[in-house]
Write a structure and sequence with these properties.
By secondary structure, the chain is α+β, with helices and mostly antiparallel strands. It is about 25% helix and about 35% strand.
Length: about 170
């Protein structure tokens, strides 16, 4: 069975690749969790009020990434720790995380976006994280390579480099 997965790398155009999950199951390594955060600019929050609970997001302009991994149903947790979803609305629906990030930086609304994409903006104060206790890991970041008995040295070096860099990534929380 073939699935389409979207691979996005900063500075590289997103592409869709058909991947047989069974064929790669033994030929991938998890590099990091792909944690999502709720965030907005201080200016947006000052103009529109800071939501006190995730349920308050229904009264805000939410910037929505609409693809297979994301939608207008944003993940959250119940007080007992169970997973739940809240349906949000907004004036921007796109399939581009970069577009949502740009719209957030233009004070247009609240986004739910991969932490690694907004880490620097959170650190600089250009964006403010909302509900850090509500961070959700929706997927993982993998390195995928063809199954081979002897990987070329360049490929092994790249995999080792990626593992090292991702293990000390400032946005990984470790």
């Amino acid at each position: 069975r073939r699935h389409t997965r979207y691979i996005s790398v900063t500075g590289v155009q997103t592409c869709a690749l058909p991947i047989s999950i069974k064929a790669i199951a033994r030929d991938l390594h998890v590099l990091a969790d792909n944690e999502r955060v709720y965030c907005a600019t201080p200016a947006y929050l000052e103009a529109n009020g800071r939501p006190e609970t995730v349920a308050d997001l229904t009264r805000h302009n939410c910037l929505i990434i609409d693809n297979k991994a994301n939608s207008a149903d944003w993940p959250t947790r119940t007080p007992t720790g169970q997973s739940s979803f809240i349906h949000v609305t907004g004036n921007l629906v796109t399939n581009s995380a970069g577009t949502v990030m740009h719209a957030m930086l233009c004070d247009m609304g609240i986004g739910h976006i991969a932490r690694f994409l907004v880490h620097e903006y959170l650190q600089s104060g250009q964006l403010v994280e909302l509900f850090p206790e509500e961070r959700v890991v929706v997927s993982s970041i993998y390195v995928v390579f063809p199954k081979r008995r002897d990987l070329p040295l360049k490929t092994r070096a790249l995999i080792d480099h990626l593992r090292t860099e991702f293990s000390r990534a400032p946005w990984s929380g470790t």
